[in-house]
Amino acid sequence: NAGVTQTPKFRILKIGQSMTLQCTQDMNHNYMYWYRQDPGMGLKLIYYSVGAGITDKGEVPNGYNVSRSTTEDFPLRLELAAPSQTSVYFCASEGGSGKLFFGSGTQLSVL
Amino acid sequence: DQQVKQNSPSLSVQEGRISILNCDYTNSMFDYFLWYKKYPAEGPTFLISISSIKDKNEDGRFTVFLNKSAKHLSLHIVPSQPGDSAVYFCAATAGANSKLTFGKGITLSVRP
Question: What is the DSSP-derived secondary structure letter of residue A73?
Answer without folding.
Answer: B
